[in-house]
Structure formats: structure tokens, C-alpha cells
Amino acid sequence: MQRIIDFVLELDKLKGVTRKTRPLGLERYENSAEHSWQIALLAASLAPYAEESIDVSHVVAMLLVHDIGEIDTGDTMVYTEGGWEERKAAELAAVTRIFGILPESQGAPFLALWQEFEGAETAEARFAHVADRAMPVLLNLASGGQSWRENGISHERVVRRIAPPIKAGCPALWGYLEGRLAEAREKGWFGAE
Amino acid sequence: MQRIIDFVLELDKLKGVTRKTRPLGLERYENSAEHSWQIALLAASLAPYAEESIDVSHVVAMLLVHDIGEIDTGDTMVYTEGGWEERKAAELAAVTRIFGILPESQGAPFLALWQEFEGAETAEARFAHVADRAMPVLLNLASGGQSWRENGISHERVVRRIAPPIKAGCPALWGYLEGRLAEAREKGWFGAE
Description:
- Two copies of one chain form a homodimer.
- Chain A has 193 residues and is an all-alpha fold.
- Helix content of chain A is 66%, strand content 0%.
- At the A-B interface, helix 1, helix 2, helix 3, helix 6 and helix 7 of A face helix 1, helix 2, helix 3, helix 6 and helix 7 of B.
């Protein structure tokens, strides 16, 4: 029992890992814990539009653990280019440590979920990536491009990073986003390339 | 698709609903979105100790939606006495509005999950309540009783509110907590009755 308690208290640190997006109407930045909650519900809501047949509860489980490595490494914006291999190795070391707080029989399934998400080779992992990539875009579309402007992210870079996974896992969502992103470009909500 | 987007942006407001507990080491108060994420993982980790046979993914789904009504009503501390019936009616009105943003076929299952949690009559709902009640206690045990002291909550009141549901759903956890709560009383981490 003590190891489970230690694990869940270690998870508390994800509430202090900040991202580049601000919750709508709030001054502070979003943290990776509340982001994980929101994308789990986005995935559950979007499930009827999944391109492949998926087990939505498995997608939800993956999304709840996918950012836990950031407890040691911090968040890296998806538009950052280069250095991904080193960051992913550091995140793997982090989740190995954190899930290792639990007894093996409980830690191993969490680590397997994290690795499945990273591998992006199952239908569930691909759909989980759709929710993870789409959410900051939806928040930016609702905030006049807050994190795109603050970080100088261009329309081209957003499309390059998010179109392939979203098209693959949820083409209907891409159909929606493509037009909204073009409108946002017209409105000047992006940084320069 | 627009209704799903509107729903998930409405959910963003739960990030601004604050609770009485502070994340460990942070000055700010915890919000109900990150709390929902944490207790979903607490439930998943504690599942081997559940008193009854449970479908853990169903417990997780309930926990992800159980606080959504607070978007309209705000959080009420579990130790508040009296007025629960009115608050629960207000929360039901809130979730009816919020899940009603979605098409009926998607909103109805979310509303059913919320109602199942509130009813606390299934094994999964009982276990979901264990995680919801235990988490602020675990945070208080790790912070020297931060929210108990700030709000004048006594040992007796904590035990009265949390012992019955935790004993019912997860006796092993109650066995652990009972001793820790007695130690905390010795240390003066509670308010006066």
C-alpha cells in the first residue's frame, strides 16, 4: 500500500509542469495534469469519428499516463524541432523511475501504456495522438492563437506537425481543422515562419 | 464535430475551479481538472485492493466526469455539512447543460456515468468514491494537514466523512489510513472540533 501512496504523491508533481498554452480566460499556463484530463475526455468524445475501430478506454488509459515522464524532463512544445531522440530517452528513464515506485505487477502495465503511446503503432495509440495534438490547436483557435503568437509558431509549422497524425487517426477532425486553421492565418493568429 | 469542440472547450473551465488543497510544494490551490486526473490514476493503482470485483476502466471514466458540474457550481469541500441536496440538484442541472452540448448519443453516456457516481450503488461507483475521498487525505498527510488546518477540520470530522466509503470500497486502504490519521492527530495537523 505504501508504494501506491508514494506513486500517487509523486504524480502530484505533474500539476507543476507547465505547458505553453493558457487555459481560456486564465492568466496562468496550463499544466500537464489538467491537459491529460482534458484530452482523455476529448478522445472519448471524438471516438465515433475514429478512422479505425478502437477500444476507447484503452485510449483514455494511455492519455492519462503519456505525459508522466515530464515530471523529470518538463514539457517540450510539439513544434520544437530537433533533439527529440534525447528527450524521449530522458522521458523513458523518467517513467521507468516513476512507474518503478509501484510493485512490478502494477508498474509494468503503466509502462506498457506509455510505450504504446510513444510507439504510435496501434490504432489506439494513433487515436491518442490525435487528441494530444488537436487540443492545443483547439485552445489556440479559441484564444486568437495565444501560444502560436507568444512562441512565433507559423501556420506551416502547425500544419506540418499536426496534419499527418490527425489525418491518419481522425480524418473528420482534420477536415474541420484545416478550414479553421486557414481562417486563423487570415486573421494573423500565427507567428512568421 | 462543432458540438464536440464546443463541449471540450466548455470543459476547459474546470481548470479554473479551485479546491481547498494545494498541490505539494506549490502556492496555488489545486483545481478540479487536475484532481480528476490524479484520482483516475489512484483508482487504477489501487484496483488490486478493491473489495468487490470492478471494471477499472469504468471507474476511471466515472472519475473523469464526476466533477464537471462544478463548472457552474464551484467546488464544495467534502467536510461541509448541510445543504448537500441543493448543491447536488444544482450540479445535476449543470451537467445536464454541459453534456447537452454534445449530440444526445454522446452526451447521454456521460450523464449516465455522472449519475452512477452520484448514486454510489454499483461496485464501480463505490470504488470511485474511495479514490475521490482518499486523495485529499493523502495530500494532507503529506503536507502536515494544510487544508485541515486552513479550514479548521477536525480529526473526528475527517473520519466521519471518509471512513464509511473507504471501508466499504477498499478496506486495505482504510487500514492504512486509520493509523496515519491517528499519527496526524498526535502531531496537531487538524483543526479543533
